[in-house]
Automatic annotation (TrEMBL):
Coiled coil: none annotated. Signal peptide: none annotated. It comes from the Bacteria. This is FAD-binding oxidoreductase. Belongs to the FAD-binding oxidoreductase/transferase type 4 family. Keywords: FAD, Flavoprotein. Pfam families: FAD-oxidase_C, FAD_binding_4. GO terms for molecular function: catalytic activity; FAD binding. Gene3D superfamilies: 3.30.465.10, 3.30.70.2190, 3.30.70.2740, Uridine Diphospho-n-acetylenolpyruvylglucosamine Reductase, domain 2, Vanillyl-alcohol Oxidase, Chain A, domain 4. The keyword DNA-binding does not apply.
Length: 478
């Protein structure tokens, strides 16, 4: 297929980024046009890989003047198709994979300045080598990038203590839709000079501009860890337990993950090397992690004390505390293997929702009941970050049912879950963003005034609608 872009435009872009910055071969382009789950596929006129902010800005200016839509892309590890172009073949994918410099580490200011193409794991390693911690941690950290983490306001397993990307960011550098560069790379913790513009771009999924660099917070490295796998009689017990552990351990509590027996059962069946830490099955589990900056801190004793009280209260049925890093890693593998394991059971209808922590048990009970009433036999895989109310509420088909009939029920199942989420004053997307998967649902379940205000911001910054069109907003709302 011939490119819809003019020969002159392609030549001008190539002069800016060089031959290594241009991907035109259809076969080489495929990795940029399909997400990692093969759930979303698109076409593109061109894939452009600038190596600097200045080159990227010049490409954006050219495309803006030519009326060409742009799709920013980081590690392409998202779950909602936010970095995949549409099927028109007229959009340009802007990959930030070559922009991977760590520009500065300021230990006195406890900050690190990095470009958007830096892989999260490399950022973690750079912080560690400097004797510091960058706490964002998630399953895709070996391939996701800082730009994508910022664009989706990523959370992960340590939000309970450190917050998500919004809380971890002090400043941004952003290329605006017309090619101007906003230099907001200020490592300031206090700046009351008007609107805090960085928060417009964090979580905007590339629809308002392209984040090219960021000043991020660093933290003291942790040197002591205690990890426990805990069996619970109910989801309510998880709420009671986290409140108790929080009051006892304060900010030493870094992680508190909750998962259902169905979640664990899939992992035990499908993930090699995993085994049940406890002798008998239980309805619910929690994975608790404490960390401290002090070497040899008495975290295990603290955890044992907290669990002892929880046993007396009936919040805990059984528990095991890891006695080595290898055992702790094995416990975390049970939590991190859930998404992969569920895929072996056929189509997985994934819902990344959040509700107030106090209402998680009621949400689960009422939503489970509603789904079983309307779709008997569906298997509900509930797990997530208990401390911040983020629940991955995923649905697998009934045993023995075909994929196609189950997939045909996807929208009806989604409606039940999102209606219930709305009834609990929750969010239909806690950490994965909207991408191209959820804009229509957002238009349905968000306050219309919120949508109106978001649309006004979009039109102010991107009046031509060229930045990642079709993402965040339902068709016709841009």
């Amino acid at each position: 297929m011939s490119s819809p872009l003019s020969h002159e435009l392609i030549e001008s872009i190539e002069r800016l980024v060089g031959p290594a910055g241009l991907v035109r071969d259809p076969e080489l382009m495929q990795g940029y046009l399909t997400d990692w789950r093969n759930a979303y596929q698109g076409l593109a006129a061109l894939v452009v890989r600038p190596a600097s902010t200045e080159a990227l800005a010049a490409v954006v200016r050219l495309c803006h003047d030519a009326g060409v839509a742009l799709v920013p892309q980081g590690g392409n590890t998202g779950l909602c198709g936010g970095s995949i172009p549409d099927a028109s073949g007229r959009q340009v994918v802007l990959s930030l994979s070559r922009m991977k410099r760590i520009r500065e580490i300021d230990l006195a200011n406890e900050t690190i300045t990095v470009e958007a193409g830096v892989i999260l794991q490399h950022l973690q390693e750079a912080a560690s080598q400097a004797g510091r911690l960058f706490p964002l941690s998630l399953g895709a950290e070996g391939s996701c990038t800082v730009g994508g983490n910022l664009a989706t306001n990523a959370g992960g397993t340590a939000v309970l203590r450190y917050g998500n990307m919004r809380e971890l960011t002090l400043g941004l550098e952003v290329v605006l839709p017309d090619g101007r560069i906003w230099n907001g790379l200020r490592g300031l913790r206090k700046d009351n000079t008007g609107y805090d513009l960085k928060h417009l771009f964090i979580g905007s999924e590339g629809t308002l501009g392209i984040i090219t660099a960021a000043v991020l917070k660093l933290f003291p490295a942790t040197h002591s860890t205690a990890t426990a796998w805990v069996a619970l009689p109910s989801a309510q017990a998880a709420v009671d337990l986290i409140g108790h552990v929080r009051s006892l351990c304060a900010d030493r509590l870094t992680g508190f993950e909750m998962m259902s027996r169905q979640s664990l059962a899939f992992v035990l069946e499908h993930v090699a090397g995993c085994s049940d830490p406890l002798d008998t099955p239980h309805p619910w589990y929690a994975l608790i992690e404490l960390r401290d900056t002090v070497p040899d801190a008495p975290l295990t004793q603290l955890l044992e004390s907290g669990l002892s009280h929880a046993f007396e209260q009936g919040w805990v049925i059984d528990a095991v505390i890891a006695s080595s890093q290898a055992q702790a890693a094995a416990l975390w593998a049970l939590r991190e293997g859930i998404s992969e394991a569920q895929n072996h059971e056929g189509p997985s209808l994934k819902h990344d929702i959040s509700v107030p922590v106090s209402r998680i048990p009621e949400f689960i009970e009422r939503t489970d009941r509603a789904l079983q009433q309307d779709f008997p036999g569906v298997r509900i895989v509930s797990y997530g970050h208990m401390g911040d109310g983020n629940l991955h509420y995923n649905i697998s088909k009934p045993v023995g049912h075909g994929d196609a009939p189950f997939k045909a029920q996807e929208r009806a199942i989604m409606q039940v879950i999102y209606r219930m989420t709305s009834a609990f004053n929750g969010s239909i997307s806690a950490e994965h963003g909207l991408g191209q998967a959820k804009p229509a649902a957002a238009a349905q379940f968000k306050d219309p005034l919120e949508i109106e205000l978001m649309r006004a911001i979009k039109r102010t910054l991107d009046p031509a609608g060229l930045m990642n069109p079709g993402k965040v907003f339902a068709s016709g709302l841009e």
